[in-house]
Amino acid sequence: MDEELNRLKNQNAILEQRVTNLEAYVKQLAHDLKTPLTPLVGASELLASGFNEQPWSDLAQSIKISAENLLRMVDDLLDLELCECGKIRLNLSSFDPVKPVSDEARKIEAGLPAKRVTITLNLPEIPVYVWADETRLRQVISILITSALKVSPVGGRIAVRIARAGSTTVFEIEDDGNGIPESDLLYIFQPYRTPEGQRRRVGNNSLVLAKKLVELQGGSIGAKDIRNQGNTFWFDLPAGKSTVVTEVV
């Protein structure tokens, strides 16, 4: 019995060391990839701004978008590692999410070729507030819009909505791309799984990261198929309170 227990302990120690080595390797790999990617993104932006005629302008824009997406994937990998290690930093506060969400949507749309996809914003008439980390909220919105963009047809539409629902603020990103099979919806945010719907969207790490960031801020996330006519990705976060101080006379 003691011999078998020692054998299992030794095997467990070996596995733990392999996991530690793999985590260190992934972290170093991400840093090594980011080093040449950063100047590549800068060069692609300069290239894209220098062409006004077709087909060179679209080609330069495609290079720019691909370089930015690759850099974003590397950054997501690093952030995912921080989440796994419990070292991610959150700066929670109460704020109106309309501006950060609008900024991210317009920034993504501005980087697309003309008439590629239209991003519409359905914003609440009455201000809503959210208790969250603004930087991480922007990151989640960017991941989900980029995910929708990847499956949207030319001339397609992506709708971004914000609404208050009880004690939470809900965000929805709806696309009209290929629907995710119902069997894949349970696994779309899980690591180490590559369902069909996930292969057509952003890298696995990005969707996993979005889930972890939302849950670390006290929210939940999910996806649903719209009768095979597109998909809606949604997440909610705790509602915040107005930071405006009203003077009582």
Describe the structure.
The radius of gyration is 21 Å and the shape is globular. It has two domains: 2-85, Helix Hairpins (Orthogonal Bundle), CATH 1.10.287; 92-238, Heat Shock Protein 90 (2-Layer Sandwich). The protein has six helices and seven strands, in the order ααβαββαββααββ. The strands form two sheets. A five-stranded mixed beta sheet has the order 2-4-5-7-6. Strands 1-3 form a two-stranded antiparallel ribbon. The termini are far apart. With 249 residues, it is of the alpha+beta class. Helix 4 runs antiparallel to helix 6 (204-216). The chain has helices spanning 2-49, 56-85, 98-110, 134-151, 196-199, 204-216; strands at 92-95, 117-122, 130-133, 156-165, 168-175, 220-225, 231-238. The longest helix has 48 residues, at 2-49. The model is unreliable at 244-249 (pLDDT under 50). 29% of the residues are buried. Strand 6 and strand 7 (231-238) form a beta hairpin.
